[in-house]
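Long-time lurker, first post.

We've been arguing in lab meeting about whether NAP would sit comfortably in this protein at all. Half the group thinks yes, half thinks no, and nobody has a model to point at. So I'm putting the question to the forum: if I give you the sequence and the SMILES, can you give me back a predicted structure of the complex? Inputs are below. Any interpretation is welcome too.
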Amino acid sequence: MKIGIIGGTGGMGKGFALRWSQNHDVIIGSRDATRASDSAVEYTNLAKEAFGEMKGTISGSDNVSVAKESDVLILSIPYENIDSVCSGVLPEIKDSCVVVSPIVPMTKTDVGFEFIPIKENKPFSYQLVLKHMKNKSKLVSAFHVISEKKLVNPTLELNYDIFVCGDDDESVQVVNGLINEIKGLRPIYLGPGELSYLSEISTPLLLNAMIRNKINNPGIKIV
Ligand SMILES: NC(=O)c1ccc[n+]([C@@H]2O[C@H](COP(=O)([O-])OP(=O)(O)OC[C@H]3O[C@@H](n4cnc5c(N)ncnc54)[C@H](OP(=O)(O)O)[C@@H]3O)[C@@H](O)[C@H]2O)c1
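Top reply:
Settle the argument with this. Predicted structure of the protein with NAP, as C-alpha cells:
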C-alpha cells in the first residue's frame, strides 16, 4: 500500500513515516519537493537505525504528486492551511484513496489550550476538509490524541487508544489496520464523520490536563 503524507516534513509526518515504513511504501509530501526528498533520506536512516530492516520504503515529492499516487493520504498540515492545501491536492486523488485527517483546530491562550471551533465559531477540521473531497465517504478522522514525540520515539512503549470517525466502513477498516500496525495503539470507533469534533477536542483536553497536572506522556485509554 502506498501511504502519502501531505506536510510529511513536520513532526507527525516523521512519526507516521518511521512507523509505517516497516510494512508500506511511504511518500513524504511537501510544498517543496527537495525538502520532501531530504526528509525522506533522514527518515529512512532513522528507521533503519531504530528497527533494522524495512519492508517498505520512504521517498519524497511535491504534495500534488504524492496525492496522485497514494492509496491512503494523510493530511498532516495545520488547521489554518486546510483550504489552501486541500483545494490543490484533493481533486487529484484516486477514487479509491482513503483520506485521513489528524488535524487539530487548537490555539494557546491565556487560559490554556482551546478549541478553535468553539473559541472562534469556526468549522472543525473534518468539516473543512470534507468540502474538498470528491467522494466524501472516503474521509476518516483519526490520530488526534497521539503526540509526535511518542510516534518518533521507537523505544517508548505505547498503550493508547486512537479515536476514529468516518462514514464508510471499508475506509474506517483501512485506518484501523494502520493504527493496529503501530504496537500499543488501539482504534476506538466513535461514529460517523460528523462526530469528529469529539475526537478533535480531545487534544486540547489532554494538553491542559498534562500541563496543569505535570503528567508526562499523557494519552487516552478507555477502560
Ligand atoms: N504534533 C503533534 O504532536 C500532533 C498530535 C496530534 C495531531 N496533530 C495534528 O497533525 C497535523 C500535523 O502536525 P505537525 O505537528 O506535524 O504540524 P507542523 O509541523 O506544524 O506542519 C506540518 C507540515 O505542514 C506544512 N505546512 C506548514 N505551513 C503550511 C502552509 N502555510 N501551507 C501549506 N503547508 C504548510 C509544512 O510542510 P512543508 O513546509 O514541507 O510544505 C509542515 O512541515 C496538525 O494538524 C496537528 O494539529 C499533531
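For your lab meeting: Residues 104 and 200 are 5 Å apart (CA to CA). The first helix runs from residue 11 to 20. Whichever side wins, do check it experimentally.
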